[in-house]
From TrEMBL:
UniProt keyword Signal present: yes
InterPro entries per record: Cyt_c-like_dom_sf (IPR036909)
Organism for this UniProt entry: Cohaesibacter gelatinilyticus
Gene3D superfamilies for the chain: Cytochrome c-like domain
Domain of life according to the entry: Bacteria
Leader peptide range in chain numbering: 1-28
Alphabetical keyword list: Signal
Protein name as annotated: Cytochrome c domain-containing protein
Organism phylogeny: Bacteria, Pseudomonadati, Pseudomonadota, Alphaproteobacteria, Hyphomicrobiales
GO molecular function, one term: electron transfer activity
Amino acid sequence: MKFFKSTTAPFCIVLMFVALVGSVVASAGSVNTDDPAALPPLTQEELDEMDVGVLFKARGAEEVYAYCAACHSERIVSQQGLTRDDWIELFEWMVDEQGMEEIEEPDLTLVLNYLEKNYGPDRPNFPGKKK
């Protein structure tokens, strides 16, 4: 118990408390990057700075461009119009038959969310489609 009788003990306890509270506050304001849906919307500046070829500029476009354009044109992606399950099946085929590296989480969910929303069966962002 000599520790608690020292003059530095109260200071150490206060310091530990401040550090604990600070870490709780800091984590409360942080974004879970493992969950793409929890990411904040992109700013117009971020969208304007994207270099993703013909792909629709939105969250996930840069990842789709990086993974897909490594082997083929992004135009192939933009022309598909697949369901989420079809995109998954296509990725599995590319991994099994074409030597593509598997896309790990959280990127896989981010890529699938982007493709499902922007290049699903209704193809809202098909190049040249009149809106």
